[in-house]
Amino acid sequence: MDVQLKKGLLEICVLAAIEQEESYGYKIISDLSPIVEISESTLYPILKRLESAGALTTYSRAFNGRLRKYYLITGEGKRRLAEFKTSAPQMEKIMNFILRRNG
Amino acid sequence: MTFTEWLRALEEHLAALPPAERQRAAEFYKELYSDEKETGMSEAEILSGLGSPAHAAAEILGNFAETGENGQIKAGMPEKNGTPAKEKSEKKDGVLFIPRSKLIAGLGAAALAFLLGSFALGIAGSVLAGELALLAMGITLLLGGTATLAAGLIVSGIFVLLAVPVYYAIKYIGKGVIWAVRKFYKNLLTEAKA
């Protein structure tokens, strides 16, 4: 997949992965990897970028005698996700056009 | 390669980052490693999933530069990364850069000033030469007769009197030219710096 396109989509995917409940690095990768190719080294910059943009916040909690970092979606993150969801019909049209489907 | 070695290599690749930023990345990978280990993955499996430390570092550094440019960087990160590259290059160019058209105009002005100066000097020279010649003529006429002596004296007197205004005229014209050229260059330099 095109790098720029994938970068944007992955951000939305990560937001979707933490939309219902907070999550952590390994779980986000496990949840997303059946849908989209995502590696550890790709996830870290995405999480950092989303945090800088205020789309998510983090906190650390003890787990199994060590600290685990949890990622929580913010209002801004929810707004972004909702905005993307409203563009779904348009995305579908674009895909139909590219794939020459008569949708 | 063990995970500890992988992590050390990653940190080495991230040496340019502030320590807090480097530690944050290391924590992220340590946590992932622990989680994967607990699900029963082998060290080799985990490492192949992580990819090379250089690649992981490149992903982090690329992202770091990006957030820096957008001004979204948080406290604790060095300012130099936040300065857009554009501003840096502008500073470098602004020191003594004179546009080509201005340079040609400046050279033209200098040539004009040179010509005017030579012209003024020429006038001064000929006036002086003329005076000397007439003075000599007066002396010759002095030996000839009293009527011509009077004429010679009058002419010489006129030129002596003329010498003063000519001197001042040349002096002020010269000063004016120098002032104009200097002002022109000053404008050029301030424009170039701005």
Order of helices and strands of chain B: HHHHHHH
Overall radius of gyration of chain A = 15 Å
The backbone outline of chain B, from C-alpha atoms, is rod-shaped
Q: State the share of residues found in helices of chain A, binned by percent.
A: 55-70%
Helical coverage of chain B, percent range: over 70%
The proportion of strand residues of chain A reads 15-25%
The low-confidence parts of chain B are 69-95
Strand content of chain B: under 5%
In total, how many beta strands of chain B? 0
Layout: helices, strands, pairs:
The complex is a heterodimer of chains A (103) and B (194).
Chain A: H1 3-17, E1 23-24, H2 25-32, H3 40-52, E2 56-63, E3 66-73, H4 75-86, H5 88-98
Antiparallel strand pairs in A: 1-3, 2-3
Helix pairs in contact in A: 1-3
Chain B: H1 3-13, H2 19-38, H3 43-50, H4 53-69, H5 85-93, H6 100-144, H7 146-193
Helix pairs in contact in B: 1-2, 1-4, 6-7
Describe this structure in words.
The complex is a heterodimer of chains A (103) and B (194). Chain A is of the alpha+beta class. Chain A is built from 5 helices and 3 strands, in the order αβααββαα. A 3-stranded antiparallel β-sheet of chain A has the order 1-3-2. In chain A, helix 1 (3-17) packs across helix 3. The two termini of chain A are 23 Å apart. By secondary structure, chain B is mainly α. Chain B has 2 domains: 3-86, no CATH class; 100-193. Chain B is 81% helix and 0% strand. Chain B is rod-shaped, with a radius of gyration of 41 Å. Chain A binds chain B through residues 24-27, 29, 39-42, 44-45, 47-49, 52-53, 64, 66-69, and chain B through 25, 27-29, 31-32, 34-36, 38-39, 49-51, 55-56, 59-60, 62-63, 66-67, 70, 72-74.
